[in-house]
Amino acid sequence: MLIYKKVLCRFPAMITRFTQLYIGLLVAIPCLATNGTMTKNLKVLVSSNDYPPTALKILEDHFTVLQSRYLNFGQEGSTLGREEILKLIPGCSALVWISNLPITNEILDAAGTQLKIVSTVSAGYNHCIPEELRARGMQLTNTPNVLSPAVAEVAVGLILSASRRFTENLDQVRRGEWEIGFDKVLGQDLRDSTVGIIGLGGIGQAVVKRLSGFDVARFIYSGHREKPEAKALRAEFVSQDTLLEQSDFIVAAVPLTNETKLMINKETLGKMKPNAVFVNVGRGDLVDQDALYDALKNKQIYAAGLDVTTPEPLPKDHKLLTLPNLFVLPHIGSATVRTRREMAELAANNIVNGLTGKPLLSPVKL
What residues does the D-isomer specific 2-hydroxyacid dehydrogenase NAD-binding domain cover (predicted)? Predict the structure, then answer.
């Protein structure tokens, strides 16, 4: 009886609380629907027809997605792709840029003030005219770190290819004329060598990790400041001059900026050892290619391996391709199935966060 009376006494309060919850739910449901409708009204343009489906779905779950029917690379990108982008971009709030082609003022003008964020599916962003985006009050994101392992693997491959003279050896195989002899086409050892990394960022650190099993004697690196991660990697911070003068292998893994443009030139190449192997997995414009040609042609340095060049693609009759001590790849650093998928998904999630008021996952400081 006592319990019954207590329940009766509490019943009005229980009814009041239930009513509050019910009314709150009635209010919340329309709000959720409205928010969903609001984001669906936002248009996002994907600039190329080869964007991974998993990343496309991330965008489609939140926004109205427009996608170019054309590849945004090479001749197709600069003609049909460009025309399609100019037609689709008016009124878009975000642009996913999948291309090595530059974003132009023409594209930004066509987009208008509605465009709030550009998400480039790349670590480098110099092709996105960041100064212009800043002037227009837009945000820019990129996809660093997720591509570091794949690019580092290519860097190691270029080190081995250049130092073991793959260009010359593959030519022998194709010609069917093998140089037989105990001292023929000998290469350079990684074992007991000094490896210098210009730029110990994510890619540079990944390169050091992958080379740790090659019995490298010493890792050194240059940059603006010492990196806290270097201690665990047994990497020593040195000046750039020291790195150039003491390294047997030199890997350029820095972004292209006004400071780094043409940082590998006649003067810096002149500081390298005669047995030095130079590798570039950053950007083509880090290197004065005429100076590199002369250094390789005159055997001022031993060899080089490039995954990036200026221009891209490098013309088949370019003088660099006549050198037997140069190994060139067609910018495949991040070209693995997993890496390209993760890059695309990161770019998509940056758009989602940017258009829903959440912190960007990988913003570029403009």
Answer: 156-333
- The active-site residue, picked from 62, 127, 318, 331, is 331
Same-domain pairing of 59 and 165: no
Q: Which of 194, 186, 245 is nearest to 216 (CA)?
A: 194
Q: How confident is the prediction for the chain on average, in pLDDT?
A: 91
* Residue 331 among the catalytic residues: yes
Judge whether 74 lies within some domain: yes
SS3 43: strand
CA atoms within 13 A on the CB side of 312: 17
Provide the 10 A C-beta neighbour count for residue 211: 22
Residues 249-267 have a mean pLDDT of: 96
**Using CA atoms, how far apart are residues 353 and 359, in angstroms rounded to an integer?**
6
Same domain? For 192 and 310 the reply is: yes
What would the DSSP string read from start to end of 279-311?
A: EE-S-GGGB-HHHHHHHHHTTSSSEEEES--SS
DSSP state of 224: S
Domain that holds residue 83: 42-146+338-355
Close Cβ partners of 46 (under 8 Å, ≥ 6 residues apart): 56, 59, 65, 66, 67, 68, 96, 98
Give pTM, 2 decimals: 0.86
Tell whether omega for the bond before 313 is within 30 degrees of 0, i.e. cis.
Answer: yes
CA 48, 328, 168, 243 torsion-angle sign: negative
For residues 136 and 177, membership in a common domain is answered with no
Question: What pLDDT score does 39 carry?
Answer: 81
Q: Which pLDDT score, from 0 to 100, does residue 200 have? A: 97
- Omega before 228 cis (within 30°)? no
For residue 43, give Cα distances in angstroms to 91, 97, 137. 7, 14, 18
pLDDT-derived band at 230, boundaries 50, 70, 90:
very high
Q: Do 106 and 177 belong together in one domain?
A: no
